[in-house]
Amino acid sequence: VILHGVDLNLFRPPEDRQSLRQHLRLNRPTLLSVGNLIELKGHHIAIEALTRLSGMDLVIAGSGERDEALKRQARDQGVADRVRCLGHIEQHELRNWFGGVDVLVHASSQEGVPNVILESMACGTPVIATKVGGIPEVVTSPEAGILCAERTPSGLVAGIQGLFAEYPDRKATRRFAEQFSWETTTDQHLTLMHEVMSAS
What we know:
It is a single chain. This protein has 200 residues and is of the alpha/beta class. The protein is built from nine helices and six strands. It has a six-stranded parallel β-sheet, sandwiched between helices. Helix 1 packs across helix 4 (91-100), helix 2 (43-50) crosses helix 7 and helix 5 (115-122) crosses helix 8 (170-177).
């Protein structure tokens, strides 16, 4: 299996993270959930988990059919003041959010290898993710982040608390992501094609 890569030049740690956080108005430990606003992406699980994580904020980046439902959920569960919905964000802007927040939360019910996980790690930000699709093939060390034991608010809370208890060095997270460069992925594809051609 050859995993796809990430643009390490576009997605990279910020030069001045503290200034970036001030610019983005990130004043407390902040979680980021990125993806289309549909049920399978699990943004609703992140919102419910936030109700058990006092002192933390959640930023949601994406657009879709569940936009109003997610905002209503945040209001109903008393965390609307700690949830910020950004709508659709272009990649060059998303890089800043990856670099500014503390954790990427990815609570999908099905996936391949999500670009956002590689992009977040390339910016030095570890992930909390569900054990679905190709995610366990990518999140393979403490530097990368933590895989949730279950896709529930409780599972997410446990993962987040575990990560903050032993938060990885952000430079180590970036180094971990560098194995997924497009150059490495291209070389792996070329090697495979040469092997196939030689065998025939």
